[in-house]
Automatic annotation (TrEMBL):
HAMAP family to which the protein is assigned, alphabetical: Lipoyl_synth
Annotated localization: Cytoplasm
Molecular function GO terms recorded: lipoate synthase activity
Region listing for Disordered, in residue ranges: 1-26
The organism of origin for this protein: Azospirillum oleiclasticum
Protein name (Swiss-Prot/TrEMBL): Lipoyl synthase
Organism lineage: Bacteria, Pseudomonadati, Pseudomonadota, Alphaproteobacteria, Rhodospirillales
InterPro entries: Aldolase_TIM, Elp3/MiaA/NifB-like_rSAM, LIAS_N, Lipoyl_synth, rSAM, rSAM_sf
Cofactor, how bound (note): Binds 2 [4Fe-4S] clusters per subunit. One cluster is coordinated with 3 cysteines and an exchangeable S-adenosyl-L-methionine.
Family the entry assigns: Belongs to the radical SAM superfamily. Lipoyl synthase family.
Length: 319
């Protein structure tokens, strides 16, 4: 009698019993080519060799082929298993991994091998850790500063809910950009981001500016989840009240039938309208398009962000 094959570990156990939502065919303006470049495969092998995770793979980012062709990988620290179960996210959930104490140095080594001038570091949520992983973020920033002092560092953190001192720990490590995504409008949090709280996320962004006003702050949302234009405009106002510098807006894409369905595909023209509105509300930088993601073109966007701040300061000095 042959033994039954081992059961594959469920990537999203909390979604296993949900009814399927058929994945809709994407419109022409969203389709991307499969990754085939030599640089893509070399980047993949580097990550495997150093046992590092990337949000590019874990979140099934549609831009992975383009970004990895240019060796622009976004590192995901603190393991590959998230303690939250957001309805939109493809990152695996469940019992979290043990922390790799050498991960900060491995990330720094990969930054050097990829010759990155700007690096983005994100993570899973680690509600199981006393500080939510804040010290690990700080150590990773420090390791990159030591080995690649010319590289600018952008971080995309969890909300550090109920983790006193965590925001301060990361902000004092002085990343160049401190990003935390609101993801959607407050009305949709109970179904889309049930483990999070909208005003906790806003508070994080405002606190970073209070700790160090010189740090650039950034946040992003997805559209196509059922939000209204008025709700998006209110999120913009809330972010500006928190003095956030950079806003990203992209189309939600459903990773699997177990994830929340796409409500609609927002047209490129609507994205242009959102970008105009955000600029009018005072953001230094706005990136709004169907394929916009937090780390998409982050290096060139950071250069433009610095130029925008310098221009604003110069104009204020003349006035």
């Amino acid at each position: 009698m042959t033994a039954a094959p081992p059961t594959e570990k469920l990537r999203h156990p909390e979604k296993a019993h949900r009814p399927d939502n058929p994945v809709q065919r994407k419109p022409a303006w969203i389709r991307v080519k499969a990754p085939v470049s030599q640089e893509y495969h070399e980047t993949r092998e580097l990550m495997r060799g150093l046992k590092l995770n990337t949000v590019c793979e874990e979140a099934a980012c549609p831009n992975i082929g383009e970004c990895w062709k240019h060796r622009h990988a976004t590192f995901m620290i603190l393991g590959s298993v998230c303690t939250r179960g957001c309805a939109f996210c493809n990152v695996g959930t469940g019992r979290p991994d043990l922390l790799d104490p050498h991960e900060p140095e491995k990330v720094a080594e990969a930054v050097g091998q990829l010759k990155l001038t700007h690096v983005v570091i994100t993570s899973v949520d680690r509600d199981d850790l006393d500080d939510g992983g804040a010290e690990h973020f700080a150590r990773t920033i420090g390791a990159i500063r030591s080995s690649a002092p010319g590289t600018t560092i952008e971080i995309l953190t969890p909300d550090f809910m109920r983790k006193p001192g965590a925001i301060e720990t990361v902000a004092k490590a002085r990343p160049d950009v401190f990003n935390h995504n609101l993801e959607t409008v407050p009305r949709l949090y109970p179904t889309i981001r049930p483990g999070a709280r909208y005003f906790t996320s806003l508070h994080l962004l405002a606190t970073v500016k209070e700790i160090d006003p010189s740090l650039f702050t950034k946040s992003g949302i997805m559209v196509g989840l059922g939000e209204t234009k008025e709700e998006v405009a209110q999120v913009m106002d809330d972010l500006r009240a928190a003095d956030v510098d950079f806003l990203t807006i992209g189309q939600y894409l459903q990773p699997t039938p177990k994830h929340v369905a796409v409500d609609r595909f927002v047209t490129p023209e609507e994205f242009e309208g959102y970008a105009r509105l955000a600029r009018a509300k005072g953001f230094l930088m706005v990136s709004a398009s169907p394929l916009t993601r937090s780390s998409y073109h982050a290096g060139s966007d950071f250069a433009r962000l610095r130029e925008a701040r310098e221009a604003k300061l110069a104009a204020a000095a003349v006035a």
